Amino acid sequence: MYANFMAHPDAFLAITSGATPEERMIRFVEYYLTAFHEGRKGAVAKKPYNPILGESFHCTWDVPRDKVRPLRTTSSSPAPAAAHATQTASNEGLGSYRLRFVAEQVSHHPPVSGFYCECKERQICVNTHVWTKSKFMGMSIGVSMVGE
Description:
Helix content is 21%, strand content 34%. It has 148 residues and is of the alpha+beta class. The two termini are 14 Å apart.
């Protein structure tokens, strides 16, 4: 479910803390892997939004600044976004970051879901579309997540 991609908004916001491109890439992979888990919390699958009716989902999170993990390694040259965020945090005290999320099903056939999430304070956003591809393999079913 694409809602699982924001199950850990603190991991998403931590991406900009990387001082080097490699650190930011590692942070992104950590965030991306938090979205995948086996099973479902509820017993019933949820119905997707109806694009014909214009249904969409909007929400925001206020993520406390102290919940966004600091860097594991140090570097002599911090990333521009990280330096800006550190300066903003020192100017505003602990407070929180505002994370905005919009999701909708953009197509019924094939069923494609899309979402957009941004945090202006951390200068980061993600724009995604995903769908599942299913196939029957004898006694089992294979499901692949496809998209960008």
